[in-house]
């Protein structure tokens, strides 16, 4: 019999890649999808798998909905990827973000504990929990100091997963994943904002991309690699927590440079902090400029992960480096450009 898996957040970036991976492995996959005024299956359609998974109505804020779903299906594996995932807007909706990203996790875990304790559970934790730098690189033992309502809510989600594992012997694992991107990344995240803007520029619409803090550094990998790590975590005999990261950190400015180079643009940076901008040496036009509106109330300045535990215990390693990732995303946006 095929294994059964539930993916919450199946319409998101990671949900789409994970659904494809599990389908390739022969799973019977259910995508838990919240109702929108228009069905949002774009990413699943792009990967050619929209018709291959069963979908169910789902919202992490609704306990009865979750209980019925878990009680009625007894899934082998549940991957909780659903969240309000954009850090920047979490200061505007802190209570909702706490409810979905924090309490949503315990709603799922409690339904599993009560109705389906054999189910293996994956929680989408995040490097945003580290926040203020306490150690470089960050691993599973680095203390947390989140810097946004998003990060604070995710710390709750992380610890309640650990607590349900320890209290009720659930097979519940938490993946502390550093930033991972792809051509399916949401348009508002900095990498995709850059590649969409540069593709538009390279296509002959020279509107500068406006960004916030260019000095922040992130450890960026490819989402397709990271969903493999999620799956490996649930195949282990014992549940545990793992960092997934590349171990390489890059400033926003350099990511823009890599994406620009892939599109034949040659950036020259000038100015300091709020007046900084990049001009394309060939056309002489401004490609990127800073707009203070995109700065955050509190920033995570430096993330770089140590994934040696995942490498040793899961045999996991990322395959795509940051330059190849920037080029992949820029090329995809250039090819998809509709003008
Ligand atoms: P996306 O924003 O692309 O996807 C988030 C998904 O959650 C969407 O399917 C969204 O549905 C769904 N969702 C949002 N709110 C609710 C709700 N109230 N009830 C049910 N579903 C909801 O995120 P990613 O795919 O990038 O990330 C997946 C998970 O991993 C998230 O939990 C994120 O916080 C976490 N994470 C991501 C990292 C990254 O770099 N990508 C790194 C570390 C952790 P809809 O389409 O309707 O909006
Ligand atoms: P992040 O991703 O907050 O790390 O969360 P994002 O791409 O939004 O920001 C990364 C860094 O870039 C700086 N930045 C800008 N960010 C955006 N979005 N727009 C801009 O114009 C801009 N200019 C500079 C930010 O200040 C920040 O330092 C992502 C999400 O996927 C989370 O869900 C996940 O948990 C973490 O990654 C790991």
UniProtKB/TrEMBL annotation:
Pfam families: GDP_Man_Dehyd. InterPro entries: GDP_Man_deHydtase, NAD(P)-bd_dom, NAD(P)-bd_dom_sf. Its cofactor is NADP(+). Keywords: Lyase, NADP. GO terms for molecular function: GDP-mannose 4,6-dehydratase activity. Residues 6-329 form the NAD(P)-binding domain. Coiled coil: none annotated. It catalyses: GDP-alpha-D-mannose = GDP-4-dehydro-alpha-D-rhamnose + H2O. Its EC number is 4.2.1.47. It comes from the Bacteria. HAMAP family: GDP_Man_dehydratase. Catalyzes the conversion of GDP-D-mannose to GDP-4-dehydro-6-deoxy-D-mannose. Belongs to the NAD(P)-dependent epimerase/dehydratase family. GDP-mannose 4,6-dehydratase subfamily. PANTHER family: GDP-MANNOSE 4,6 DEHYDRATASE, GDP-MANNOSE 4,6-DEHYDRATASE. This is GDP-mannose 4,6-dehydratase. It comes from Ancylobacter koreensis. The gene is gmd.
């Amino acid at each position: 019999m095929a294994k059964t898996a539930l993916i919450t957040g199946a319409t998101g970036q990671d949900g789409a890649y994970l659904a494809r991976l599990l389908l390739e492995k022969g799973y019977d996959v259910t995508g838990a999808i919240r109702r929108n005024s228009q069905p949002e299956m774009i990413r699943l359609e792009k990967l050619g798998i929209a018709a291959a998974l069963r979908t169910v109505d789902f919202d992490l804020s609704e306990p009865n909905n979750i209980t019925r779903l878990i009680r009625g299906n007894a899934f082998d594996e549940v991957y909780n990827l659903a969240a309000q995932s954009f850090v920047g807007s979490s200061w505007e909706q802190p209570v909702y973000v706490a409810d979905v990203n924090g309490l949503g996790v315990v709603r799922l875990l409690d339904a599993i504990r009560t109705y389906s304790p054999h189910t293996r559970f994956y929680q989408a934790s995040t490097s945003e929990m580290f926040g203020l730098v306490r150690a470089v690189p960050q691993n599973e033992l680095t203390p947390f100091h989140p810097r946004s309502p998003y990060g604070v809510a995710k710390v709750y989600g992380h610890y309640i997963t650990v607590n349900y594992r320890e209290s009720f012997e659930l097979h519940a694992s938490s993946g502390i994943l550093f930033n991972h991107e792809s051509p399916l990344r949401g348009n508002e995240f900095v990498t995709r904002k850059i590649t969409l803007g540069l593709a538009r520029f390279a296509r002959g619409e020279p509107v500068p991309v406006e960004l916030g803090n260019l000095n922040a550094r992130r450890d960026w990998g490819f989402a397709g690699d990271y969903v493999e790590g999620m799956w490996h975590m649930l195949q282990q005999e014992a549940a545990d927590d793992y960092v997934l990261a590349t171990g390489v950190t890059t400033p926003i400015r350099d990511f823009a440079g890599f994406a620009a180079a892939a599109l034949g643009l040659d950036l020259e940076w000038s100015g300091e902090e709020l007046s900084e901008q990049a001009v394309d040496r060939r056309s002489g036009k401004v490609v990127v400029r800073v707009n203070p509106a995109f700065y955050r109330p509190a920033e995570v300045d430096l993330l770089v992960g140590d994934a040696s535990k995942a490498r040793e215990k899961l045999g996991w390693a990322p395959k795509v480096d940051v330059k190849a990732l920037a080029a992949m995303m820029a090329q995809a946006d250039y090819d998809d450009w509709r003008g």
